[in-house]
Design brief:
Elements: E1 16-21, H1 26-41, E2 49-55, H2 61-66, E3 84-88, H3 94-111, E4 117-121, H4 128-137, E5 149-153, H5 161-174, E6 180-182, H6 190-200, E7 214-222, H7 231-235, H8 238-256, H9 265-277, E8 279-280, H10 287-290, E9 291-297, E10 299-300, E11 305-306, E12 324-331, E13 340-346, E14 353-360, E15 380-386, E16 390-398, E17 406-414, H11 415-418, H12 426-436, H13 445-464, E18 471-473, H14 480-487
Parallel strand pairs: 1-2, 1-4, 2-3, 4-5, 5-6, 7-13, 9-18
Antiparallel strand pairs: 7-14, 8-12, 9-12, 10-11, 12-13, 14-15, 15-16, 16-17
Helix pairs in contact: 1-12, 4-5, 5-13, 8-9, 8-13, 9-13
The structure holds 6-O-phosphono-beta-D-glucopyranose (BG6).
Length: about 500
């Protein structure tokens, strides 16, 4: 039986062993081991905690314990001293799982980890199936009356609806859904969780959070970076699969869903699924009206010239992979019917910026002469996910002086200036939640399937369309088609300068 989630106030891990597959990989080094280090430093791990890395690359326990922390060792931490192991082996070799099982039993005996195991799949997606089958073959998928066995899975979860269902088949062949924790690291960000706080811990926003007040919503995930060293991976993904299918649709679901009864896992996820189900799919005929892709070309300044996507390492010089995607979505329910939602994401844009902007309708009548209103934008509420984490409310205010000029002003809430507490890294928060058994910030099987249902028709349409892929210069705000997409109804993207 799986353990019930602990009370929020306690928020420290129970006795357990964290097993990371893909232990010599990039994500483990950059995110997971630093997250374990932070959890230990912040006193969130008990003395009965152990960490096991599994990968093909040969390494000693000590080398693994040092691999992320620049010469410092996880073994120096009181909670981890003597509790870090490394198992080298092939993912499809039953011997690997036999040795892993022995290591886990030994740790239970010497560390008191109580048979609780959290298996973290941080491998390339191709290894998910052999690892899950290997775990099941060694009986490591079995929870008992007194201990848990949980599986954390990184993205990509499939590459379309059909492959996501196949993967679910493999996962559910070994683990029950309540044992499965699918990660979207955006949900580990405090500012993404703050969308819930803003909407449901306050009364003033709820009445205006619907079609009677909101003209449209823009969700932007803009990155300044290119694909860097991940060209090989990105070629098989593209912006739609890499960001829209997961991060963008998750943020959208939290921003638009109905109030849940509680933030407990099933209640919260039921509301997200209902919202995703209400998203109307573009028909083949209107995909070109509702979705735009782009690929960055060489650009920047003379001092900082940036390579085009096709020149990046690991990228096909004739690649048709999109590094930019924008679309207009409609949500067919009582709250949102008729309100357009514009979402976009891109690499090599001029600013790193993730935000949700709700733009309100213009007043029905303005008793002010038009020539006094030249600098008045529509009212807007902007949830800044990153950077400059916070919220702004934009509205019109009278300009000081003898005439009645009205200009846009804004009120700002900034995380930095308001709170002394620091935000944990997304991975730190999510690892702790998975150890505790709180699934509310993880993605349920039906959510993944709904998200693929939404993006699949657009990706398929693009794959069939052989016309040249629209381009945009590195460090510009995407292809001009994206301006036309939103401009069709007289609207404009909010492009930060
Ligand atoms: C990852 C994508 O999921 O999110 C990357 O695979 C992207 O391509 C990253 O750069 C963005 O995450 P963050 O937290 O930096 O916004």
């Amino acid at each position: 039986m799986d353990h019930a989630p602990q009370l929020i106030q306690e928020r420290s891990a129970p006795p357990a062993t964290l097993v990371i597959f893909g232990a010599s990989g990039d994500l483990t080094r950059r995110k997971l081991l630093p997250a374990v280090d932070n959890l230990a430093r912040h006193g969130r791990l008990p003395d009965q905690f152990a960490l096991v890395g599994v990968a093909r690359t040969p390494m000693s326990d000590e080398q693994f314990a040092e691999s992320a922390l620049g010469g410092k060792s996880l073994l120096d931490k009181r909670q981890l001293a003597g509790g870090v192991r490394y198992v080298a082996g092939g993912y499809d070799d039953p011997e690997t799982y036999k040795r892993l099982a022995e290591t886990l039993d030994e740790l239970d005996a010497v560390r008191g980890t109580s048979g609780n195991r959290l298996f973290y799949l941080s491998t390339p997606a191709g290894a998910f199936e052999p690892v899950i089958n290997g775990l099941a073959g060694a009986g490591l998928n079995q929870a008992t009356e007194t201990s848990f066995a949980r599986l954390v899975i990184e993205k990509p979860y499939g590459r379309d609806l059909a492959t996501a269902r196949e993967l679910d088949g493999v996962v559910h062949g070994a683990f029950e859904e309540h044992q499965v924790f699918r990660i979207d690291h955006y949900l580990g960000k405090d500012t993404v969780q703050n969308v819930l706080a803003l909407r449901f811990a306050n009364s003033i926003f709820q009445p205006i959070w619907d079609r009677s007040w909101i003209d449209h919503v823009q969700i932007t995930v803009a990155e300044t970076l290119g694909v860097g060293t991940r060209g090989g991976f990105y070629e098989g993904a593209g912006a739609m699969r890499d960001i829209v299918q997961n991060h963008v649709l998750q943020v959208l679901a939290l921003a638009l869903m109905e109030p849940p009864v509680s933030f407990e896992g099933e209640n919260l996820r039921n509301e997200k699924v209902k919202l995703l189900q209400a998203i109307r799919l573009p028909t083949d005929r209107d995909v070109s009206e509702a979705a735009v892709r782009g690929q960055y070309t060489r650009g920047g300044t003379r001092e900082e010239l940036m390579a085009g996507y096709r020149e990046e390492v690991g990228v096909d010089p004739l690649s048709r992979t999109e590094t930019y995607a924008a679309m207009r979505l409609n949500v067919d329910n009582w709250r949102w019917a008729g309100v357009p939602f514009y979402v976009r994401t891109g690499k090599r844009l001029p600013a790193r910026l993730t935000e949700v902007a709700l733009q309100f309708q213009r007043p029905p009548h303005l008793p002010i002469p038009a020539d006094q209103l030249t600098e008045l934008d529509a009212d807007a509420l902007i949830l800044r996910i990153q950077p400059n984490e916070g919220i702004s409310l934009r509205f019109g205010a009278k300009v000081p002086g003898h005439s009645f000029r009205v200009r846009t002003a804004s009120m700002n809430f900034s995380y930095d200036q308001t709170f002394v507490e620091e935000s944990p890294e997304a991975y730190e928060r999510l690892l702790l939640d998975a150890l505790i058994g709180d699934a509310s910030l993880f993605i349920r099987s039906d959510e993944v399937q709904q998200s693929w249902r939404i993006v699949d028709p657009i990706i398929e349409h693009w794959e069939r369309d052989r016309s040249p892929i629209p381009s945009y210069e590195a460090a510009s705000w995407g292809p001009t088609d994206a301006d036309r997409l939103i401009g069709r109804n007289g609207r404009k993207w909010r492009n930060a300068s």
